[in-house]
Amino acid sequence: MRVIAPMLLALILLSNVACSGNSQPASVNGNANEWQPIQSIPGALRRYLVGDTSKPGPYKYQLKIPAGARLAAHQHSVDVHVKVLSGSMFIIIGEPLESSRAQHFTTGNTFVVPAHTWHDEWWDEESLLEAEGVGPMETVYKGQNASISSSAGETHLTLSRPFDCYPYLSVKSVLNPVR
I need a surface site. Which of 68, 79, 99, 157 has the fewest CB within 10 A? Predict the structure, then answer.
């Protein structure tokens, strides 16, 4: 256990450093309203209009999504209000995540993804979306959790993926190695 704690700490620090360059919204970096690539959807672009999803307060951003894109099942820590500005998208909101439950939203449609609700989304055509809510918002992808136990107690390590940074590590409790 003495080896695991330092290795986890190093992994966490390296992940945060690796992500720090692109994890800040454009408005924080002085590039407000500029389209920036996002890693969670290859070929997609995002621009912040208001706020920062990682901080308390309102946020609003737009996404340009290429045709054929798919985002793995995930959930957010807050309600997200979405409007389809152009194009269309498919989404399954809530479990079971079965294709027979898919909803199709087209230009002008709006919907809400409730907090802590698993959802799966994909696009058959290039689309422009606008999303807004009140932060801070954390996005967790299904299947990205792991637990580590020790004789000193149980420690949970949650692997989560903010919208544009994979992987991002956050420790939900502090490791207490056996001495």
Answer: 99
